[in-house]
Design goal:
Rossmann fold; 5 helices; about 35% helix; globular
Length: about 170
Amino acid sequence: MNNENQKPVIFLAFANEQEQRLHYLRKLPDESRNLRRSLEQAQEKGLCRLEVRTNATLDDCLEVLRKYRNRIAVFHFGGHADCYRFLFEGEAGKRAEIDAKGFAALLGEQTGLQLVFLNACATQEQVHGLQEVGVPVVIATSCDILDEVATEFAVQFYKGLASGVVS
């Protein structure tokens, strides 16, 4: 196994509301673009491998989790969620509701996972379930959060992570 196959993976998944676009997150594409730019610098320095999925479906996430089994160090979800579910994108623009406990169990199978960042509204209730499956650090929100605020917080956090300020 070469060094490239041993680098920790940062997995960013973004899912937006496409069905009726009533709850479309206008800043989510900016979040995706800016996080990718910040973390590409860390990848270029050989510190990690970056995987980004926009318009993410559950199948997209499962594919990445299988491909990089036990190498995923950070999982970031940007989109809609709440205490009990994630809203991924589904077929033909429909949304797919994914049970948070079931998804936490999948993430818990990743032995290298150090951080889950849930950049979505009111995900605090998911923290306990993620910690129960072995995720040491979880960033979540306790209430609804403005799209602009969520984006800016994530961008600043990952800029700090990529530059070594956050460790």
